[in-house]
């Protein structure tokens, strides 16, 4: 088994999966900053209270995404040719799961260990980290199973649904019958909070749970899912590529080389100044148009049937944070393999490709703004929201695109999960009334509407646009040069 583990370590290096432990560092720093900010604002905060962001909002999507990225890597690399050399496929898959479990353990150690270094209780921190790791094993196995059969996006979607079900039923009396609740329920007591993030009360039923029951169920779930992931074979062979016959071109034999018959097509045609239509043509089957239309219909329907704040909040807290992370993933899958060639044909292709993301954001923000004004929202307030949607959304969609180009789709999806949870927790909470509103930029269209805050938010967002543009331009240039 040792050779399989060593081979997997070599394969996982310099992939997006290897960077997952840094999520633990980010979560720990956020816990420290938010806890200090809450206490200075006059609210109660227990040492690990902000870890609720992780185990109630991020754990399942992150762990399943990590497993899915490993499966996607092996599928694209055709397992590095190992399976044609007489290796044991089950041991190869088991080694992949063991390395993922080790990465998860490192993430938990960094996440809780850094907080412990800043004065949090050692015993509770160690216990919470151990429980988090045990709960992650079942998520890794399930993510590998789903990704192997249905792909990475399906695994991420299952992770989100799994997390939502767990949060909804974690404090119910029949949580033992609901596997998504197990990794959450066992952490309520060590962390000392309810699912809502408030300190756990003395009469909470979670305090009377046998501690080893939930842990044992999580271990059982991990063993079952990981064993199934190690034993289950991959899907069938890839579909054969449909080959089209090359066009027949006839040139007179007597024509001299200087005649137009020998003039290449690229030299004779006029390149478009800004090839937006070319980018749109490439993205026709990427799923972007479907997502845009569905998002617009949801916003218009909510604005028509519910209070305007509902439509505005959904757009600010869910559609924009999720959209700016998913949009570059969808477009890059269609454009990325041919970016170097397209840029060689037309150097303006990459700026047009980047601008397409801003156009999509502008269309959705415009539809939302018109819907809000149509139902009676003050035009001045909606205008400020529109400006912030465009500026802040541009910052994050360019940042996500830079992450996709530089580190792969997994990096953008991980960042999307983190900033979505932060946006919902800060922007949709009483903390938005304190100075902590600044650390959730995607919530600014809801929290920075007052003129005093708008004056602060707008230049910061504009500066972020400039920085993110230079980041995505540098990432694109490096990708083209290395292609």
TrEMBL record:
Record-annotated membrane-spanning stretches: 20-42, 48-69, 97-120, 126-146, 153-177, 212-233, 287-308, 314-340, 352-374, 386-405, 412-439, 451-472
InterPro entries: Lanti_perm_SpaE/MutE/EpiE-like
The keyword Transmembrane is annotated on this UniProt entry: yes
Record carries keyword Membrane: yes
Keywords noted in UniProt: Membrane, Transmembrane, Transmembrane helix
UniProt-listed CDD domains: ABC-2_lan_permease_MutE_EpiE-like
Protein name from the UniProt record: Lantibiotic protection ABC transporter permease subunit, MutE/EpiE family
Organism: Corynebacterium durum F0235
């Amino acid at each position: 088994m040792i050779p399989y583990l060593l081979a997997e370590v070599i394969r996982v290096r310099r992939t997006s999966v290897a960077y997952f432990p840094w999520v633990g560092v980010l979560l720990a720093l956020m816990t420290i900053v938010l806890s200090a900010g809450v206490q200075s604002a006059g609210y109660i905060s227990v040492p690990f209270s902000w870890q609720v962001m992780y185990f109630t909002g991020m754990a399942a999507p992150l762990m399943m995404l990590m497993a899915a990225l490993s499966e996607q890597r092996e599928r694209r690399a055709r397992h590095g040719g190992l399976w044609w050399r007489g290796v044991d496929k089950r041991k190869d898959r088991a080694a992949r799961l063991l390395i993922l479990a080790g990465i998860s353990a490192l993430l938990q150690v960094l996440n809780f260990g850094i907080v412990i270094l800043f004065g949090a209780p050692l015993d509770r921190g160690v216990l919470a980290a151990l429980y988090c790791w045990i709960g992650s094993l079942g998520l890794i196995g399930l993510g590998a199973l789903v990704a192997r059969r249905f792909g990475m996006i399906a695994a991420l979607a299952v992770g989100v649904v799994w997390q939502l079900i767990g949060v909804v039923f974690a404090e119910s009396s029949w949580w033992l019958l609901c596997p998504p609740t197990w990794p959450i329920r066992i952490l309520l007591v060590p962390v000392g909070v309810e699912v809502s993030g408030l300190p756990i009360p003395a009469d909470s039923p979670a305090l009377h749970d046998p501690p080893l029951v939930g842990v044992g169920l999580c271990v059982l779930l991990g063993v079952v899912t990981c064993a199934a992931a190690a034993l289950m074979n991959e899907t069938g062979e890839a579909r054969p590529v449909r080959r089209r016959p090359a066009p027949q071109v006839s040139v007179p034999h007597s024509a001299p080389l200087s005649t137009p018959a020998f003039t290449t097509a690229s030299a004779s045609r006029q390149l478009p100044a800004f090839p937006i239509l070319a980018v749109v043509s490439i993205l026709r089957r990427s799923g972007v148009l479907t997502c845009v239309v569905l998002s617009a219909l949801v916003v218009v329907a909510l604005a028509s049937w519910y209070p305007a704040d509902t439509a505005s909040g959904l757009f600010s807290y869910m559609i924009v944070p999720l959209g700016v992370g998913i949009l570059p993933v969808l477009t890059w899958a269609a454009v990325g393999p041919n970016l170097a060639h397209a840029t060689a044909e037309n150097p303006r292709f990459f700026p047009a490709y980047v601008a397409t993301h801003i156009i999509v954001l502008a269309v959705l923000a415009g539809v939302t703004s018109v819907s809000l004004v149509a139902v009676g929202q003050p035009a001045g307030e909606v205008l400020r929201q529109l400006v912030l949607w465009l500026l802040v959304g541009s910052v994050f969609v360019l940042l996500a695109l830079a992450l996709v180009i530089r580190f792969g789709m997994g990096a953008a999806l991980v960042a999307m999960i983190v900033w979505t949870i932060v946006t919902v927790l800060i922007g949709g909470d009483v903390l938005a009334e304190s100075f902590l509103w600044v650390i959730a930029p995607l919530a600014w269209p809801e929290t920075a509407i007052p003129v005093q805050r708008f004056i602060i938010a707008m230049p910061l967002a504009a500066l972020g646009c400039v920085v993110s543009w230079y980041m995505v331009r540098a990432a694109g240039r490096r990708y083209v040069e290395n292609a």
